[in-house]
Amino acid sequence: MSWVHEGDGLVGWDVAATTTVRGPERFARAQRWWARFCEAAHIDDEVMAPGTGPVAFASFSFDADDESVITVPGTIVGRRDGKAWITTITPHRPDPLPTPHGGRLHEPHPDGEHYRRLVAHAVDEIAAGVFDKVVLARGVRLTGEVDVHRTLHRLADKYSDCWTFSVHGLIGATPELLVRRTGEQVMSRVLAGTVPRMPDDHESGQLATAMVASDKAREEHAYAVTSVAQALGTHCTDLDVPDEPSVLRLANVQHLATDVHAMLVDETSVVAIAAALHPTAAVCGTPTERAMQYILSREELDRGRYAGPVGWFDANGDGEFGIALRCGQIADDHTSIELLAGCGIVAGSDPDSEFEESESKLAAMRWALDDD
């Protein structure tokens, strides 16, 4: 288990406790389970910083009907702002804790033509006023045994600006921080609008300039920022939302980015804030219910925990959750991994361009898993 960003973060191994939850109340159920766990544990925390003491790693599903997983490592190594620590967890358990029930490239599911047709249909639905935006995903399955440690090391090395994670078979490096809670301070990074990053800096700069000027990209981004700001407003005050997005340049793609800052008005935990935020317009669409209905009925893909919140939380309610993007889910028998990527569809979206954007987003995991 891991959550690492620019050399700081948490790495855990062994399992002190684990549980699975599902349903619309999965975030609340996870929080209640964690509260019982912490109440039963004797905590000796001399560091007293976010991420010290008891810590749980969690990966929540995109759709409520799928399974979410929460795991407490037996040993955790943490590093933050030049400080490092080791946490060992051997809790007293008041009641039984439930347990959760590389290679050759195969044809994507859905395949390229299916995905293009799906995008075209969604654009027609947008024109008809069914919804304003919908995010459509596609998957690629690779067969063969996955070297998790090597893959995570390559991702952390090349994509140090992202949050590299590994939770119960879900591995990846996400550029999007759904929420960070540190005491009263809350922050969320919104990404929507994407162009490739080229080897030539001048060409990359031209693409970024065109993205900033694109009505389509700015509209897609604005929907995502609005959904995050509205959700944070239920628990926070003093929202700081920049008027203009910046450009986040990663190794292979460039995104429109907005960092939203706020102050908590209550003692809401990071898990509850993540529940209020999910799903954002960046991974679902606008309006949320209509976009979700379209995804579940048309996408023909089981997202599982892709595009759901992934990260960690501690006994004080602090923590970080990213959105599980640029990732893959390793099969239970460890013989394959499914990579997933999605694109935001708005009025004016072009099926060929969206397919190419999805290919760009899949490139990070394809590269990290490549044996060459």
Structure description:
By secondary structure, this protein is of the alpha+beta class. It has a single domain (2-369), classed as Anthranilate synthase (4-Layer Sandwich). It has helices at 26-40, 112-127, 148-158, 201-213, 215-232, 270-277, 288-298, 351-369, and strands spanning 2-5, 8-13, 17-21, 55-59, 68-72, 75-80, 83-88, 104-105, 133-143, 163-167, 170-174, 177-182, 185-196, 236-240, 246-249, 253-264, 285-286, 309-314, 319-323, 327-330, 336-345. Strands 1, 2, 6, 7, 8, 9, 10, 11, 17, 20 and 21 form an eleven-stranded antiparallel β-sheet that branches. Strands 3, 4, 5, 12, 13, 14, 15, 16, 18 and 19 form a ten-stranded antiparallel β-sheet that branches. Helix 3 crosses helix 8. The radius of gyration is 20 Å and the shape is globular. The two termini are 25 Å apart.
Describe the secondary structure blueprint for this structure:
Blueprint: E1 2-5, E2 8-13, E3 17-21, H1 26-40, E4 55-59, E5 68-72, E6 75-80, E7 83-88, E8 104-105, H2 112-127, E9 133-143, H3 148-158, E10 163-167, E11 170-174, E12 177-182, E13 185-196, H4 201-213, H5 215-232, E14 236-240, E15 246-249, E16 253-264, H6 270-277, E17 285-286, H7 288-298, E18 309-314, E19 319-323, E20 327-330, E21 336-345, H8 351-369
Antiparallel strand pairs: 1-2, 1-10, 2-6, 3-5, 4-5, 4-18, 6-7, 8-9, 9-17, 9-21, 10-11, 11-20, 12-13, 12-19, 13-16, 14-16, 15-16, 18-19, 20-21
